[in-house]
């Protein structure tokens, strides 16, 4: 692990709670409306998914197909950006969000910078476009965050996408998404230069979290919607929680909404006021 990544791990600049896909269940996922609602609940850390349109424009979208979260039909990879931007990405959720659009990644970066928010950018490539998507998303992160002190945490289930991202953004923090973190993932984490591993919360326990901490990796977990389970994970020292229940979690754990800069092991060293080193963009 290089010096920059070692420093990132030791002085973690992210909040513990991340609003999953912008605002969890309270707004249409992966939209600007969701990010705005998440922010209204006090979140400054946002997780969202990025994939490419037919001609390679980066957009926020989770699924391979459009049916679940828009009024469109078919594969995202077969639609150009002009077609995608005409779709309604809000009515499926509720009438209050009718007309919400699929946002470009570039628009979301401007929103985040304008408020000093931080991001976990999940690379969610369409099938067969892992390398292309990983490379382009990483290039956009480097370009968009070059003057930011806190870089985005770039994550993916796709090792090919992360490998491509690592080649472009070698000093940016990467996270490997898996279902069940285990010792077998250590070689991959090292090869990709990752700073974190992200696992399903049901697969985690205190021993697993300590194991990865001892090997120099942060541990994040998805998707935690139960207060009791979140309390247990926090007691075990988990570093990040992605939640759909953004209102309940914010009310119960307000101190975990903001970045702390806390070291992984020794909380008395290397502290930084991370909020104040990221001025809002004019």
The poorly predicted ranges are 262-282
Secondary structure tally, helices: 10
Question: DSSP strand (E) fraction?
Answer: 15-25%
Outline: globular
What does this structure look like?
With 282 residues, this protein is of the alpha/beta class. Helix content is 32%, strand content 15%. The protein has an 8-stranded parallel barrel with strand order 1-2-4-5-6-7-8-9, surrounded by 6 helices.
Q: Care to give the gist of this entry?
A:
The chain has helices spanning 3-10, 32-40, 81-84, 105-115, 130-145, 159-168, 186-192, 206-214, 227-235, 246-252, and strands spanning 17-20, 45-52, 58-60, 118-123, 153-156, 174-177, 196-200, 218-222, 240-243. The chain is of the alpha/beta class. The two termini are 35 Å apart.
Keywords:
disordered C terminus, single chain, 8-stranded parallel barrel, alpha/beta, 282 residues
Helices and strands in order:
Layout lengths: L2 H8 L6 E4 L11 H9 L4 E8 L5 E3 L20 H4 L20 H11 L2 E6 L6 H16 L7 E4 L2 H10 L5 E4 L8 H7 L3 E5 L5 H9 L3 E5 L4 H9 L4 E4 L2 H7 L30
Parallel strand pairs: 1-2, 1-9, 2-4, 4-5, 5-6, 6-7, 7-8, 8-9
Antiparallel strand pairs: 2-3
Helix pairs in contact: 5-6
């Amino acid at each position: 692990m290089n010096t920059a990544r070692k420093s990132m791990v030791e002085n973690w600049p992210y909040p513990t709670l991340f609003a999953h896909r912008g605002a969890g269940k309270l707004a249409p996922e992966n939209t600007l409306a969701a990010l705005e609602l998440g922010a209204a609940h006090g979140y400054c850390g946002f997780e969202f998914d990025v994939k490419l349109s037919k001609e390679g424009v980066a957009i926020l979208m989770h699924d391979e197909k459009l049916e679940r979260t828009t009024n469109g039909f078919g594969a995202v990879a077969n639609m150009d950006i002009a077609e995608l931007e005409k779709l309604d990405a809000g009515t499926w959720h509720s009438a209050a969000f009718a007309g919400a659009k699929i946002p470009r990644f570039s628009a979301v970066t401007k929103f985040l910078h304008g408020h000093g928010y931080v991001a976990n950018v999940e690379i969610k490539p369409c099938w067969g476009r892992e390398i292309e998507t990983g490379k382009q998303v990483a290039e956009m992160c480097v370009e968009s965050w070059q003057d930011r002190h806190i870089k985005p945490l770039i994550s993916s289930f796709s090792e090919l996408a992360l490998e491509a991202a690592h080649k472009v953004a070698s000093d940016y923090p990467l996270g490997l998404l898996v279902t069940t973190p285990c010792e077998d993932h250590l070689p991959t984490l090292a090869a990709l230069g990752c700073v974190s591993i992200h696992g399903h919360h049901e697969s985690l326990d205190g021993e697993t979290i300590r194991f990865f901490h001892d090997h120099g990796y942060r541990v994040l977990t998805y998707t935690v919607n139960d207060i009791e389970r979140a309390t247990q994970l926090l007691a075990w020292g988990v570093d990040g929680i992605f939640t759909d229940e953004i209102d309940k979690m914010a009310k119960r754990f307000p101190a975990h909404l903001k970045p702390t800069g806390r070291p992984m092991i020794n909380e008395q060293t290397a502290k930084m006021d991370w909020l104040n080193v990221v001025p809002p963009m004019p």
